[in-house]
Amino acid sequence: MDSSAAIPALERLHRTATELAAALDVREAVTAVLRTGRDVLATSTCGVSLLDETGTVLVPQLPAEGDLTGLGVGRPVPLASATPSAEAARTSRPVLLHDRAELAARFGGGPGGLNDSVLAQGEHSWAMYPLLARGKLVGVLRFGFTREGSLDGEQQVFAATLAGQCALAVERASLLREARISERRYRTLAEAGSLDVFTVRPGHGVTGTMPGWTALTGRADVGGRAWQHDVHPDDLPAVLRTFRDAVAARSGTRFRFRIATPDGWRTLAAVAVPVLSEPTAPDSEVLEWVGSLDDVTDRARATRRTRTLQALTAAIATATTYPELLDAVLRVCLDGLGAVRATVLLADGEGSALSLHRMLTDRERRTGQVPEVTLEQLTAFAGASGRYLVGARGIAGLSDVVRGNFEAAHAAGETAWAVLPLATRRRRLGTLTLGFTEPGVDDEEEREFLLAFAGQVSSALERMQLLETERDQATVLQEALRPGPLPDVDWLATHRSATTSAGVEVGGDWAEIIPLSGDRVAVVLGDVMGRGVRAATVMGEVRTQVRTLALIDPHPTAVLRGLDACAAAGGGEDLVTIFYGVLHRDGRLSAASAGHLPPLTCSEGPHYLDVPPGVPIGVEGDPRRDVLDVRLAPGSALVVFSDGLVETRTRSLTEGLAEVLGHFHDQAYGTPAEIVEALVAQMVETGETGDTGGAADDDVTVLGLRLR
C-alpha cells in the first residue's frame, strides 16, 4: 500500500467498522471483511476460515451476497496440516509468503494437496492472519496475490487491523446467534410446564400454596398479600395497576415482574383469567382468578443481551465524535446492562495520564482526571478477564488506592461491580467499571457477555481515537497550508475562491499569483488528485517547487520541465495537473498546461483559451515544447479553475465546461469578485436546491483576474 492510499484505506476501515457493527450474523461480517480486503489490497483471492465446533478444522466461509469472484475461495484445512493457514492458527502469528519457492520450502506440497490448490489458481504470494478475539482463536483471514512480495509494512498494519475487526465482529455475531438459540430454548422449556398455578379470590388475595415460589424465595406463606414482599419495588406498582385494570374490565391479563431470591432477582411471567359464575352472562359474578407463573429469567436475560448488543451497534454507528461515542456507550451501559453507574477510565495518547468519564442515572457525563492511578495499575487490577466484586466482603480486601471509591459506591446503594478491561490487539486503553444494585455478576454467562460487550466498546473507542488524531493532524496541516492573500499588483484586479469538498478539512487545490520582474506575474492553478492530509501535503510541496522555479526561469516550458524533474527525483506517484501562465502588463500571455482545464477570457468575446493540454506532472512522454502566446485586450478578464467546479457525479466534464461558459457570458464584464462568486454559486451552491449545477464532489478553486 503506497502512502497515497493510506488515508483512503483508513476511511475504508472506518466504513467497514460501521458495516461490521451492523452485522447480525457471521456471513454479513465475512462479506464486509472480504470485500474490503480485496478492494484495498488488490488480492486475487481473499477468504475467512473459522474453526469448526471440534476446534480442529478451519472451514471457509462464503460471503452473503454480491460479487463472489475471488471471495470465500478455499478448502477445509485441518489445524494439524502443514499449511500456511494452519500455522497461523497454531502460532497465533501472521504468516507471510513472498513467492512460490518460499511456500514449497516451508510447507512442501504434493499432487492434489492443499498447498497445490492455491498454486493452481495462479497465485505467487500469500498472507495469513489469525483471527483472535480476546486472545481466543476464532479462525484465519487469508489473502492471495498473483504478484510476488506479499504485503509491505503499511499493508501489514492494514491487514492486522482488518483481522482484529473481523475477529470481534465474528465473536459478536456468534454471541447474538447463541442468544437467539438460548431465547428459543428457554421459551420451549417455559411452554412445557409452569412454575406455579395460583388462585386469587376477590377480597382475600392469593389462596392456596405456590411451591415453585417458595422454592425460589424461601417464603412458605404467600397467601393474601404476603407475596408482594418478594416483588421488586420498582415492579410492584405496575403489577397491582395491571391487575386492577383487568378486574375492572373482567378480562384476562399478562404481566412480568421480578422477585427476590437468595441468588438475586429472577423474572416471572404471569397469566391470569377470571372464573365467572355464568360464563355467558356479561354481568355474572367473578368467583376467583386462576393464573400461572413461569420463570423466564434466562429468556429475559438472553433477550436483554441481544437488545443491548443491538443498542451498542446503533450507538457506535451513529456517533461521529469522541464525546458523542462516550455518551452513547455510557447510556447503553445504564439502559441496556442495567447498571446504576458506568465509569470509563482511559489513558491519553502517551499513557501517562488517565481521564475519567462517569455517568449516573441522571444520564449526564462527568469528565475529569485521575492523577493518582497509572495505566499499569489499572490494567493489573482488571486483569485479562475482568474483576467482579459483590457486597462489602468483595471490596474489603482491595488496596487503599481503589477501596475508598468502592466503599463510597457501596454507601450510595451499589452492591456489585464489574471492572472490565478495555484493550485491543494493539494497545491497552483503560477500564470500564459498572456498578449494580443486584448481584448478577456472579453468573458465569453474564461475565462472558460483559467481556464481549467491553471488547466491542474497546474497538469503537480505538477507531474513534484514530479518527480524532487524523482530524487534529488535518487541522494543523490546514493552518500551515492555508493560502495567504493575493499580492497587490497595481495593473491587475484579482479574486480567489477556494473550498474543500464536504467533510474534508484540507484539500489538494491551490491558486496563486507570483510577482515577477519586468511588470510580469505568474498565474498558477494546480490540482492534486485526492483529498485530505496526503493531497494537501503533496500540494504544499508542488506549490513551493513552482514558486522556486518561477523565480529562476519563469517561462512555462522551464517551469513544467522543472516540475517533471522534481517528480522523477522524488519518485512520487501522485497525479498533479497545473495551469501555468506568465502575464505581462500589456496583456501578453504565455501559457502552458500539464493536463489541466483551459482558462476563460473575454478578450474578443467570452471563450476558452486554446492552451496546449499537455500531460500531468511526472507523466513521461511530453517534452513541454507547446506554449500558447496570445495578447489579451485591455480590460480583459482571465478565469482559471479546478475540475471540481465543472464535474460531479451527475454532470460530465463536457457538460460542465459548456455550462460554465454559458454562465461566464453573463458575468464576463463584471469585477473578478463578481465573476468568481457568481460561477461558484451557479455551478455548486445552487445545485443543492436549484435546477442547475450539482453538489461538489471535489475541491473547488477559482481564480479571476482583470487587466486594468
Characterization of this structure:
The protein has 708 residues and is α+β, with helices and mostly antiparallel strands. The chain has 18 helices and 27 strands. The strands form 5 sheets. The protein has a 6-stranded antiparallel β-sheet, with helices on both faces. Strands 14-13-12-17-16-15 form a 6-stranded antiparallel β-sheet, with helices on both faces. A hairpin with a 2-residue loop joins strand 9 (253-261) and strand 10. The longest helix has 40 residues, at 153-192.
Q: Any descriptors?
A:
alpha+beta; 27 strands; 25% strand; 708 residues; six-stranded antiparallel β-sheet
Summarize the SSE layout with pairings.
Layout: H1 6-22, H2 26-41, E1 45-51, E2 57-61, E3 77-78, H3 84-91, E4 95-97, H4 100-107, H5 114-119, E5 125-133, E6 136-145, H6 153-192, E7 196-201, E8 205-207, H7 211-217, H8 236-249, E9 253-261, E10 264-276, E11 286-295, H9 297-318, H10 322-335, E12 341-347, E13 354-360, E14 365-369, H11 375-382, E15 387-390, H12 391-396, H13 400-411, E16 416-423, E17 428-436, H14 444-481, E18 492-499, E19 509-516, E20 520-528, H15 532-552, H16 556-570, E21 576-584, E22 588-594, E23 600-601, E24 607-608, E25 628-631, E26 637-641, H17 653-667, H18 672-683, E27 700-707
Antiparallel strand pairs: 1-2, 1-6, 2-3, 4-5, 5-6, 7-8, 7-11, 9-10, 10-11, 12-13, 12-17, 13-14, 15-16, 16-17, 18-27, 19-20, 20-21, 21-22, 22-25, 23-24, 23-26, 26-27
